[in-house]
Design a protein that fits this description.
The complex is a heterotrimer of chains A (1058), B (219) and C (202).
Chain A lengths: L4 H6 L14 E2 L12 H8 L7 H10 L10 H5 L1 H6 L10 E2 L15 E6 L6 E7 L2 E7 L12 H10 L9 E2 L8 E2 L2 H17 L3 E6 L5 H11 L6 E4 L6 H11 L6 E2 L6 E5 L10 H10 L12 E6 L4 H4 L3 E4 L4 H15 L6 H9 L2 H8 L5 H13 L4 E5 L9 H14 L7 E2 L10 H12 L3 E7 L3 H4 L6 H5 L4 E6 L4 H4 L3 E4 L8 E6 L2 E5 L12 H13 L7 H17 L6 H11 L1 E3 L32 E7 L12 H5 L7 E2 L4 E3 L1 H7 L5 E7 L2 E9 L7 E6 L22 E3 L2 E3 L4 E10 L3 E2 L14 E3 H6 L3 H5 L23 E6 L8 H9 L7 H5 L8 E9 L2 E9 L8 H5 L25 H5 L6 E2 L28 E2 L5 H14 L11 H5 L5 E5 L6 H6 L4 E2 L11 E4 L1 E3 L18
Parallel strand pairs in A: 8-9, 8-16, 11-12, 11-14, 12-13, 16-17, 17-18, 22-27, 24-26, 32-41, 33-40
Antiparallel strand pairs in A: 1-34, 3-4, 4-5, 6-7, 6-18, 10-15, 19-20, 20-21, 22-30, 23-31, 24-27, 25-26, 25-30, 28-29, 33-38, 34-35, 36-37, 39-40
Helix pairs in contact in A: 6-28, 7-21, 8-21, 9-16, 12-13, 12-14, 12-15, 12-16, 14-15, 22-23
Chain B lengths: L6 H13 L7 E9 L2 H13 L4 E5 L7 H5 L6 H27 L12 H27 L19 E6 L6 H9 L11 H11 L3 E7 L4
Antiparallel strand pairs in B: 1-3, 1-4, 2-3
Chain C lengths: L5 H25 L18 H7 L4 H4 L14 H8 L7 H12 L5 E2 L12 H6 L4 H5 L16 H8 L6 H8 L26
Classes of the chains: A alpha/beta (1058), B alpha+beta (219), C mainly alpha (202).
Chain lengths: 1058, 219, 202
């Protein structure tokens, strides 16, 4: 039926006489049914937004988790008492200015200093922005050839963890198993530890340290020195999310237990078998940047790399794949071997040991077994594409959702493919990788020794086996036999609850250290503020205990030890260019890292594949049973759960499900329908006898047998924010040989009849079938780069008559932004960076559920295609800074006006809270402070506020400002230097941290700036341009390297022929 | 009959006060003739008008159709007041918004030009209507001689159920004018006023009661 | 029956109006204003600008080091005082107090005189760069024994200078070097400095 634009905009009429056409881009499966578009159904969905009983909702908010609204003074909502309180006020209260006693030379109050450091948990090089001795923002260190100055969402959020008032403030001791911790001072703590250690070692018992992977060479050296004082002592490193199956596979296949570097920048064809290298893998920031570099279509020829993914749980990588095939957990191995089979039939040769396994996995058999609609032809096509791209392709496997009992075989199969295709040494580069140390096998050995009573003391550093290790591993049982358990951590964790002594540790921003993410990168970590509490770094503790044990320590302090190593042996190895060791040290501190290849990067030769590894490969066995299989996966925000008390990460909506604050059971659309389950229904799933109760999330794109749940939730002892949020899935993890098995277990699903309202944000800003996003195929793009012009005419602005002349924006700076949808992976780093930079408060689960989340930039996620195998596209949505802003026109007090440089300003002190602007905004990017959220920030948490940005109180509207404080800062710098702002000098927070550089920001009047060039690109479109808002933000149409042209269905009831 | 008010008594009082006229400086208002219904009032008014008295007025509890014509009242100038002030409001609003938005502190609001008159329409409308309305009310007060604190109503029943025509004593002129008047015979002179004569006239015009009334202060 | 004469009535009216005017005026005059102009709090140490900046002609920037680099002019830290007062006037009890602070490492808690609300950001460095002298906004500090707030520091007062109404001559001259149109004294002239809201409110 022909409908013109205005009809379509308001088409909520009953179209039952018209054949219903589902929208091309949909947000949930509900949108695909005609019933949804009739008023009643839409109102039902929106029922979550409005409420009739304020008292009830307020009571819910009081009780909800998240930043502690219970502390808020209830009367302040009513407001009257506040008004009365000001009557007696005549003059503002007395404020003090308190300068330094001795001002450090480098500190000028009001001017930020930047210090380079390293995040030891991920190895990323960080630049810390410090104001008057207080870090206020983390950025990536641009000198790093790996991360290139970017940080992920969780790395950005570490700032909040630094100031967490629930951190351990002093060391303490507890009776084993008792809840209460009695605080001690360090002197007596050290004395007690030393005394116990002396006694234990005198009895010939061993001392072991169980930690997360130690990436610091110097720390490792110190630990070894410490442990050398005891007999049979060992350092065991364990990360639950570590890719130890990859390392073991590498060991089997190539003889070196490393995690090879993936040279995605060199890869034209990428096959991911359950590997989330764009989201939760280590080095995900580096890989995202490298992958995106081949997706930007900015070369002379229009060429894109291709990403094909086979995975069980939907991950960020799968969502960004050009082709994605949902499989059961464990099926990835079958796919790999079927591809090997197809390659063999195309003329490739595999080792004799593998031929049995490979030949049994025919593409036909596997495709049938997996239920692939496209059949064996697709597998053969993938194989032939891989072979066409030999040497420039890459097969990646590994990660929790594919960590089944056959995870090692999967690794061998992937390595086999890479070797056969000649990728090894080209796109797989192991030359720069250091041996991977995290090993569950070592943990098992340790548990064995603990159980036999040989371990006298266990020092747990940073690891949390009390939470991460399931009872089936036997760890907690064995712990009973250990005489002394010391837990070194920042929080009173689950493991600390099981310990005798809890040593309060520094946050990494308060500590010295070094890190070696790759062989050629030596990275330094330095403290950027004095420890907030009575905490120490672990290395200082070791030195202290060594001193207590043997009377003398290798160095007075950890700083001295570190500096001694760097100015000693490291200077000898690396300091070739001359200069003193002191200069070497200072330069390393200033730069943050040393790249021994001087930017050229490592180069390695291909390793030979060991045929003996093929013995791990099994023959084809078709899958039995129709039951559900559990796939555990880590979320981009939460990871293994270490940062569960970080409210920024809890509140970050998951890129795929857009749910904040919980984990849930993801079930495919068909599977949920078959079980009669709807969104938010609570089910009980039983995995190997262990029951878990979870709410259901209906997730398009899952195999009917897959039930995917995120790990890292259900913490019991981390703090008010994280305790009790979600369900702990670690107890479902099994042990198989030397590896943990996270996925592949059979589970039963039973309805409980209850429901739990998940805080899902995807419905909070419904585009109601208006054209806000577009994606095309590479073939269409090659035919005509401006294809999106023609396929979706409603994306383009037609000539609109104007009753008056426009403002002249041709002079001076005019700020604009372009977002490349090809590069946006949906990771959410921009959201957290913006939150950190702009003092955006956390509001808690209940508020998020009723659409009151405060994020200024959100990632909208749209599906297209069929619910069983959808394509996913992400769109960051932020204030568009429209030239004809609908919000500015309706503000009764002109709190939002347009600046001369094109920014839609929001003046907080002028806003009276009418909320008309938010009503009028077609993009729904304005955020209103319904409560005084700043009041729930207790104690040291108040140090996280960025002093350059106003902290908003209740009743004030806020929204993205294009980081106007940064613009002012750059302007000041430029004016005082007598020059213009250079392109690239000024970066918004979101732009600065985006790992794929999807965001370009700058002066659109500068014809040489990146953003002005991108705006003119044929791919560039503006959202809802037809409304004549003239937004300053352009989006670049997503171009998919998919074979079949995407369907051109337009909006509901809209036909072709324009 | 007025309800609950002993106006007979009051009339008595007034009459009795008249006897002490010298004690206060009460001015003579004129002669009031009461009518029972609007028709007779209008009849009487026509006659009074024809008789060419200088000062005469009607008092009715409610507006009576045809009385204005009978009385020969000119159209009120109030509409001119309304118009002038409305136009003033219009110009004021326009000037205010022009000055604030285009001259004093130009702000780019939603991409509109600084002088975006369509956006000014609500304020213009408001100020026009406001000034027009207020001035109409004020003008009405002024034209009616309100607030009137110098004259009490002559009789409460005039707001209740009776109508009246007042033939009033002309205002005193200055002595010079008196002299002039004597010297020059005026071609068109008003009928001279005398209490008794006016009272007679009113009775003949149909008044069922005639009374001499004085200007009473409000308090 | 009124026995009040009309002249008495007018007298009453006039007196009533006068009472209202005078009373209202007095109230408005004595009721504290929104600005803190004239605020002269007592400081923990009675530092006299008259003595240091006036008689001894010390430059403002010697102590207030941030003015060219930062948004804050910054009150000097104790070590700046000790540059002289390790030897100057050691017998004064106030100097001994400073020395005690320095020895013990405790900062001096000055009472803030000039303060803008948190939602307004004022950059000293931009103003110093354009030649706005300290006295323009802070008054003749060299004559102040006790620092008081000389200017109202409200937004209208700031905007008067930004719009060219009260801009000092030398500042106009400095700005005119790049933008000669600021010397135009007509009614509809361009502002001298930024009048964009987000220049100060962000």
């Amino acid at each position: 039926m022909e409908m013109n634009t205005s009809d379509q905009m308001t088409a909520k009429k009953d179209n039952s006489n018209v054949e219903f056409q589902p929208p091309r881009h949909w947000v949930g499966v509900e949108e695909l049914s005609p019933g949804y578009w009739q008023d009643g159904a839409v109102k039902e969905q929106r029922a979550q937004e409005f409420f009739d009983k304020p008292i009830e909702t307020l009571a819910n908010l009081e009780r909800s988790s998240g930043f502690n609204l219970a502390r808020r003074d209830f009367l302040t909502i009513m407001g009257a008492s506040m008004a009365l309180g000001t009557v007696s006020c005549v003059r503002r209260p007395v404020h003090k200015i308190i300068p330094y006693v001795v001002k450090p030379e480098e500190v000028t109050p009001g001017v930020a200093n930047f210090y380079a450091s390293t995040n030891p948990h991920t190895g990323s090089a960080v630049l810390v922005r410090v104001r008057e001795g207080r870090p206020v923002k983390l950025e990536g260190n641009e000198l790093s050839p790996l991360t290139k100055g970017k940080l992920s969402a969780s790395e950005q959020a570490e700032l909040l963890s630094l100031y967490d008032p629930e951190r351990l403030k002093a060391p303490g001791s507890r009776g084993r198993g008792s809840k209460s911790l009695s605080q001690m001072d360090w002197a007596s703590f050290d004395a007690a530890i030393v005394e116990k250690l002396k006694r234990l070692s005198a009895n010939g018992l061993s001392v072991s340290i169980l930690s997360t992977e130690v990436r610091s060479d110097t720390t490792r050296k110190l630990i070894e020195e410490f442990l050398s004082q005891f007999k049979n002592s060992s350092l065991v490193e364990f990360d639950p999310l570590a890719l130890d199956e990859v390392a073991m596979g590498q060991e089997l296949s190539y003889g070196s237990a490393v995690l090879p570097a993936l040279r995605l920048d060199k890869a034209d064809y990428i096959l991911s078998l359950g590997a989330d290298f764009l989201g939760t893998w280590p080095h995900a920031v580096e890989y995202s940047g490298a992958w995106a570099s081949n997706r930007k279509l900015n070369g002379k020829e229009a060429s894109l790399s291709k990403l094909v993914a086979f995975e069980s749980a939907m991950s960020v990588t799968g969502a960004n794949a050009d082709e994605r095939y949902p499989v059961r957990p464990g099926d990835e191995l079958k796919v790999a071997l079927a591809i090997a089979n197809a390659l063999v039939s195309q003329g490739f040769a595999v080792p004799a040991d593998a031929q049995g396994a490979v030949s049994s996995h025919t593409p036909e058999a596997v495709a049938k077994d997996l239920g692939m609609q496209e059949g064996a032809a697709k597998i053969r096509k993938i194989a032939s594409d891989l072979s066409k791209n030999r040497g420039r392709s890459i097969v990646i496997a590994g990660g929790l959702s594919s960590k089944t009992t056959s995870s090692l075989a999967l690794q061998v199969a992937a390595n086999l493919l890479n070797s056969v295709l000649g990728n090894e040494g080209n796109t797989i580069d192991s030359s720069a990788s250091l041996p991977s140390r995290s090993s569950f096998a070592a943990v098992q050995k340790l548990v064995g020794e603990m159980r036999s009573g040989r371990v006298g003391a266990l020092i747990v550093w940073g690891a949390n086996p009390g939470y991460h290790l399931a009872p089936s591993t036997g760890f907690q049982e064995a712990l009973q036999k250990v005489g002394l358990v010391v837990s070194v951590d920042q929080y009173d964790t689950e493991t600390a609850q099981l310990s005798d002594f809890v040593a309060a540790e520094n946050h990494w921003l308060e500590s010295w250290g070094d890190c070696r993410p790759r062989k050629h990168i030596y990275s330094l970590q330095q403290p950027v503020l004095h420890p907030l509490f009575e905490t120490r770094s672990f290395q200082d503790m070791l030195l202290g205990w060594t001193k207590g044990l043997s009377g003398k320590a290798p160095a007075e302090s950890w700083h001295d030890y570190l500096k001694g190593t760097w100015t000693g042996s490291l200077f000898k190895d690396l300091g070739g260019a001359g200069g003193s060791s002191e200069q070497f040290w200072v330069k390393a501190l200033q730069d943050g890292l040393i790249d021994t290849t001087k930017g050229k990067g490592p180069s390695g030769a291909a390793r030979t594949f060991r045929a003996s590894a093929c013995s791990k490969l099994p023959s084809f066995k078709s899958s039995t049973g129709e039951g559900h299989l559990l796939a555990l996966y880590p979320k981009v925000s939460m990871g293994d759960g270490r940062l569960a008390n970080n409210a920024w990460l809890q509140e970050l909506p998951d890129p795929i499900t857009t749910i904040a604050w919980d984990n849930y059971a993801n079930l495919g659309v068909a599977a949920a329908a078959k079980l009669g389950l709807k969104q938010n229904d609570v089910v009980e799933i039983v995995a190997d006898g262990v029951p878990f109760e979870l709410p259901v999330n209906v997730q398009p794109g899952l195999h009917p047998q897959t039930l995917a749940v995120a790990v890292g939730y259900g913490r019991r002892s981390v703090g008010k924010v994280g305790d009790g949020v979600g369900v702990d899935m670690y107890p479902s993890v099994r042990v198989s040989g030397d590896l943990l098995v996270f996925s592949g277990q059979g589970v039963t699903v039973r309805r409980t009849g209850r429901s739990y309202k998940l805080a899902q944000t995807q419905w909070h800003s419904q585009s109601e079938n208006r054209p806000v996003i577009n994606d095309i195929t590479l073939a269409e793009y090659k035919k005509d780069p401006g294809t999106s012009n023609h396929t979706d005419p409603h994306l383009r602005l037609k000539e609109v008559p104007s009753i008056w002349p426009m403002h002249d924006y041709s002079k001076g700076y005019q700020w604009g932004m372009t977002i490349d949808l090809n590069a946006c992976t949906g990771c959410g780093a921009c959201t957290i960076a913006c939150q950190a930079e702009n003092n955006i408060p956390v509001v808690g689960r209940e508020n998020v559920r009723i659409s009151r989340e405060m994020h200024w930039i959100r990632i909208d996620r749209y599906y297209s295609g069929s619910p069983e195998q959808p394509n996913v596209i992400f769109q960051p949505m932020l204030c568009q800074h429209c030239e004809n802003a609908p919000c500015e026109t309706v503000c009764p007090v002109l709190a939002t006006v347009h600046s001369e440089d094109g920014i839609n300003q929001q003046i907080y002190n002028r806003c009276v809270g009418t909320r008309y602007c938010s009503n009028n905004c077609p993009y729904k990017v304005r955020r209103f402070n319904f409560f005084d959220h700043w009041k729930s920030y207790e104690g040291t948490l108040n140090m996280v506020w960025n002093p350059e940005v106003t902290v908003r109180s209740r009743g004030i509207m806020e929204k993205c400002t294009f980081c106007v404080q940064r613009i002012r800062d750059s302007r000041d710098k430029a004016v005082l230097s007598g020059r213009h702002i250079r392109d690239g000098e000024l970066k918004t927070a979101c732009q600065q941290t985006c790992p794929t550089e999807a965001i370009a920001f700058g002066n659109i009047n500068d014809k040489y700036s990146e953003v002005s060039k991108l705006r003119e690109h044929p791919r560039a479109f503006r959202v809802l341009e037809v409304l004549n808002t003239r937004p300053r933000i352009s989006y670049m149409t997503k171009v998919r390297n998919a074979e079949a042209p995407s369907s051109h269905g337009h909006g509901a009831g809209h036909g072709d022929g324009h | 009959m007025a309800m609950g008010i002993d106006f007979e008594g009051k009339a008595e009082k007034i009459m009795s006060n008249e006897q002490n006229a010298g004690a206060t400086d009460r001015k003579l208002a004129g002669v009031l003739g009461f009518f029972d219904n609007p028709q007779s009032l209008i009849e009487g008014m026509k006659r009074v008008r024809e008789a060419n008295y200088e000062v005469f007025d009607a008092f009715t509890p409610y507006p009576v159709h045809g009385l204005d014509a009978a009385q020969g009242l000119k159209r009120s100038p109030l509409p001119y007041v309304t118009f002038i002030f409305g136009a003033t409001g219009f110009m004021l609003a326009l000037a205010l918004q022009y000055w604030t938005s285009a001259v004093d502190w130009p702000l780019n609001v939603g991409g509109k030009p600084f002088f975006s008159w369509p956006a000014f329409v609500p304020v213009i409308f408001e100020l026009t209507v406001l000034l027009a309305g207020l001035s109409t009310v004020a003008g009405m007060f002024v034209l009616n001689g309100l607030p009137n604190v110098t004259q009490r109503a002559f009789d409460p029943s005039l707001t209740n159920n009776r109508f009246a025509i007042l033939i009033g004593a002309p205002k005193k002129k200055k002595e010079e004018d008196d002299e002039d008047q004597e010297a020059k015979p005026v071609a068109y002179a008003f009928k001279l006023f005398s209490e008794s004569e006016a009272a007679e006239f009113l009775k003949k015009a149909g008044a069922n009661e005639v009374r001499t009334v004085y200007q009473e202060g409000w308090f | 029956m009124s026995r009040v004469s009309s002249s008495q009535k007018s007298a009453l009216l006039v007196v009533g109006v006068l009472v209202l005017l005078i009373g209202g005026g007095a109230g408005a005059f004595f009721y504290p204003s929104a600005s803190n102009q004239g605020y002269a709090p007592e400081q923990p140490i009675p530092f006299s600008h008259k003595l240091h900046a006036g008689d001894h002609k010390m430059a403002c920037a010697y102590c207030h080091v941030g003015i060219e680099k930062s948004k804050h002019a910054s009150v000097p830290s104790v070590n700046v005082c000790m540059n002289c007062h390790t030897v100057v006037k050691p017998d004064s009890p106030w100097i001994q107090k400073i020395q005690k602070h320095f020895r013990e490492g405790t900062p001096i808690e000055w009472v803030r005189v000039h303060e803008l609300p948190d939602f307004a950001y004022f950059p000293h460095k931009r103003h110093i760069a354009k030649g706005v002298s300290c006295e323009t906004c802070h008054g003749d500090v060299r004559k102040m024994d006790v620092v008081y707030q000389y200017a109202p520091l409200n937004m209208g007062w700031c905007m008067d200078c930004h719009r060219g109404v009260t801009t000092p001559r030398n500042v106009l001259a400095e700005i005119a070097k790049e933008r000669p149109e600021v010397n135009d004294a007509s009614l509809n002239h361009k502002p001298v400095a930024s009048v964009q809201c987000s220049a100060c409110h962000h």
